[in-house]
Amino acid sequence: MSLDGLESQLRELGKIISEKMGIDFADRKLPDLRRGIERAAKQLGHRDWVSCLNWLLHTPMTKDTVQALAAHLTIGETYFFRDEKLFKAIEQRILPDIVRDALKTAKVIRIWCAGCSTGEEPYSLAILLHTTLRDLSTWHVTILGTDINTNALRRAQEGVYTEWSFRGAPDWLKSRYFVKQIDGRYRLIDEVRKLVTFAYHNLVEDPFPTLISNTNAMHVILCRNVLMYFKPAVRRRVVQHFHASLVDRGWLIASPAETSLIDHPFLKRVTLFGTLAHQKVCPASSRSNYDASFDHALLLKPVWSGPAREAKNEADPTPPVSLSHETPDAVKSRAGLPTPAAPTQALSFEEAQRLYEAARYEELIAKVASLGSSELGTQTADTRVLALASRALANSGRLDEAQHWCQLAIQSDKTNPSLRFLLATILQELGAFDEAIKTLKTAIYLDQDFVPAHFALANLEMRHGNVNISRRHFKNVLKLLEKFQEDAPIPESEGMTVGRMREIVRSISDES
Q: Structure pTM?
């Protein structure tokens, strides 16, 4: 085939990959695409890149193919405590802020590393928490690491590294947190390794935030050296979803080269110790006008306004709390639950769903709260609306209130397995694992074919070390999935498809 013909085929494949992975392969990047195919050809069973190219163009691109290509089309180089300024900012400003807010409600810390590669970044954060929070065992900590490269995820789950991963790391790191093996590599101690959960997640194709993928109500999202690969439209959409995945005052952190690519009306750019981050802000005056369907990058000016703004952001008017200080029980008490105001006009499920899908959580919560006590927790209440409000509260990190409203919905419909499942996911985020397991079992009792409940119960049992029980539930999931088409969305999974869940179950089952 002529060079022009090959270039045309590369351009066509670039469009397909862009749809599946969001990676921008403009004409100037076609040589990068060719080199990636050359590296992936052998893994995909082809003798050369040309035959691999032809096969990719004439074969439906499955998730297995996407995962294989991801390992060769992106750069996943990372190491422990990469970017000292960033970890200083997390330790001295971001983490104290999270702790201060958490002590007012529930002792929960949730962090997501999107594009975690081989795991050095989420493990660095776990080590930071371990060294900083003396009472870490009393906190419910979630550190989620996701990537599209399954080979990298497998290495991350092993937690074993070579000297190359420690370049530039502090001297105490290896001696305190790793055990040297006979082969010269270093294994992370289990006490820290168990703080991090790894999962496959495609930022372009997989829905988020969702409770079932645990991508909601995050205090910090790190997505470094990922956004730069995406086309502008894809990048704006991903940033929009990140915004929805953060709690109020949560932080989105990209690499220094990517901060200028983030332009969102409610993600304020802040300079911390010489590094840039974006903090979620929800001005009361803007909430009612917020519409996720708008492309704000085209409508609004960048929030950055120069050195004067930078100096102002550097000063924190609230003194940082001592992370090692034992706070009295009175300070740790839960925030008050919302008290419904005077009754107003009923909120339709269609309107509630529209607000929820647009991530207009505060507006949805306010409308439901205004329905009045006569409408809530009664047989006449629309439990679908209450469930959406509960999800909105959970996505906002207001877990006590989410639990309260979910229980109101259950009062109205005691035999609804979906509500029990929602309550179980909230309890899990609160760290009430035993209660969550009991609630999931109730959901399954009410509906033995309820796939998400089996899936969640299998994961919880696995986390408790009950491998045989977990495998039994995973087998139940696979059996139940046989009734559905591969691309069909699973009810109550917020968009997860049958094929996607099947892949996750098989991956987890193989590892166990």
A: 0.74
